[in-house]
């Protein structure tokens, strides 16, 4: 398959709720760096296609319903697809920030990224998965720490699959905990990775966004706000991966009993349905799911657009 050059692009890759948004605000405050935010849609809807000259093709219908894609105001030229369209998207970002080094955030799709851009440089962002899981509950994505940690597991499992294919100088590991306790030191290392000078404006992001300055109290909240049972079950699910990423589990880590597993599954689904039903309205939330599964494309598109509007209203 065709591969693309990536000399002037750096990816920030990390699990949802791992600090990638506040970090991107810091990057975007630097006069020589541009980071317009998350772009998972670039790879979520890009699939292998032997019949296309580039070996890839976009699911354009799904792409046009993607809330993040729509928020970026990118154009899709008639007849352009596959890696040609990916290049066009990247060029549009570059044209909006002439002279700046382009940086983009990804939470998924790192396997496709590395396959398409084998020389890509990546800032691998890590956060204690127990805090990631807590945050996922607050977002309505999970009903418990046990299910919330699944987002982190998925992101890091994908990373495990590609890490050995990347040279040491292609990767910079950045921990949320370090970024919030030694912000200037961490950003100095980041600037060196970008090949630019450290700039104190990177610390002024809170003046132009809704995000507060780095707060050390956000670190290890799981120790204060989670029960030992919650922590034990979540750690039991991710223990080996946690050790590999430098977040050793406690001595309590264990797998759930059969009865616990059934309760966790029921509670997770009920919690997610309740959260989203209250936020979007039960008719809209479940109607979108039914329309999608039934293949009612026009009805689904209309409901999806209504969901997108409500989601955008809740963004920080």
TrEMBL record:
Signal peptide: none
Pfam families linked to this entry: Sulfotransfer_3
Any GO MF annotation of the entry: protein-tyrosine sulfotransferase activity
Highest taxon of the lineage: Bacteria
The keyword Transport is annotated on this UniProt entry: no
Transferase listed as a keyword: yes
Keyword terms of this UniProt record: Transferase
PANTHER family: PROTEIN-TYROSINE SULFOTRANSFERASE, PROTEIN-TYROSINE SULFOTRANSFERASE 2
Name of the featured protein: Sulfotransferase family protein
